[in-house]
Design a protein that fits this description.
alpha+beta, eight-stranded mixed beta sheet, 9 helices, 13 strands
């Protein structure tokens, strides 16, 4: 655990709980209004082997269990709802220009546990139906800007309720491609490049995460079957996806709030399955429906609820805004430094 020297929460535990509720309520309304999203109820688990669960980076283990009432059929706790949401767009017949959002609660036991990660993940998962001609960087950037302005409006309204919660976000978000970030900081690892960009601009959207860069490595891994990270957007540059990252003044570090992107179409799915050597996924239920043209074109992503609350409430540890599990040593250190972990 790394707790900033001299850190003291500007809200006591009681006001923190009220502010968490306020932040979530305000942001939900701002997000749904900005992107024209309607709320849906979502599953906590999905059938194993269906291809519906999110594979994240392709190495994380989903939590699984069998259901006696279904003859021992295996189920998996969701890791995110990236694929389920697109299926929901089709099944609910959501028209282009409109979308859905839901409260997603997931377990990721393989995740690192530290000041900004826990095994419990809560986020707003959202997905919006778009036209084929919207599959371009301009549309992606407009969507990112709409989300960022929703965060800005939430920060303003929270500061109205709690004046000690100063909004220090910039007025606009800066866009930079991961390839350009590599050229600016060729000697730094991807996470350190993100840190320098966030420190410089306050809020950045890093475009193109998943495809190999000039140095032969991707900025970060992405599963092959939801974001389109392989389409060439201009010569030498790939990707219709990215991450929203802000500069966290409390921790003096970068903080990722959202991963999002325009989703794969049939061509991009086949290309990315081939790149990652997992063509067998074409036979899974979810993938067969996409290849058959049953899903609309879409853009979507996840926005971390605890991450956003941590940032807006000026907290140094995610355990101050969510209930999860921490080691006895971490809890003892937090108590010693006056940090209240829920």
């Amino acid at each position: 655990m790394v707790i900033v020297d001299g850190y003291r929460s500007v809200l006591d535990p009681h006001d923190t709980e009220k502010a968490i509720k306020a932040a979530k309520d305000i942001f939900e309304k701002q997000l749904s209004g900005a992107l024209r999203l309607s709320r849906l109820t979502s599953p906590l688990f999905v059938p194993s082997g269906s291809g519906i669960n999110d594979d994240l980076n392709g190495v994380e283990r989903p939590v699984s269990f069998s259901v006696n009432a279904l003859g021992g059929r295996q189920m998996e706790i969701v890791q995110s709802l990236a694929k389920w949401k697109r299926m929901a767009l089709a099944d609910y017949q959501i028209a282009p220009g409109r979308g859905i959002y839901t409260d997603m609660n997931a377990l990721r036991p393989d995740d690192t546990v530290d000041a900004i990660h826990s095994i419990y993940v809560d986020q707003w998962d959202w997905e919006k139906s778009i036209r084929f001609e919207d599959r371009n960087l301009d549309y992606l950037k407009k969507t990112v800007t709409d989300i960022f302005h929703a965060v800005k409006r939430t920060a303003f309204l929270l500061e109205e309720l709690y004046p000690q919660l100063e909004d220090y976000l910039p007025d606009e978000i800066t866009f930079i491609h991961s390839e350009d970030l590599l050229k600016q900081y060729p000697d730094l690892e991807p996470q350190e490049r993100e840190k320098e960009a966030a420190r410089r601009y306050g809020a950045v959207f890093i475009i193109g995460i998943g495809a190999s860069l000039e140095d032969g490595r991707p900025h970060s891994l992405r599963a092959p079957d939801y974001d389109d990270w392989s389409t060439e957007t201009w010569p030498g540059y790939h990707g219709l996806n990215g991450d929203i990252i802000v500069w966290d003044k409390v921790r003096q570090d970068s903080l990722e709030l959202s991963s999002m992107g325009i989703r794969v179409d049939r061509t991009a799915l086949l290309r990315q399955l081939d790149i990652r050597g997992c063509q067998e996924r074409k036979d899974l239920y979810w993938h067969k429906r996409l290849l058959a043209g049953e899903y609309p074109e879409s853009v979507g992503g996840g926005i971390g609820q605890s991450r956003l609350c941590m940032f807006l409430l000026h907290k140094c540890h995610i355990g101050e805004v969510q209930a999860s599990v921490w080691s006895d040593e971490d809890r003892a250190e937090a108590r010693e430094k006056g940090v209240y972990l829920i």
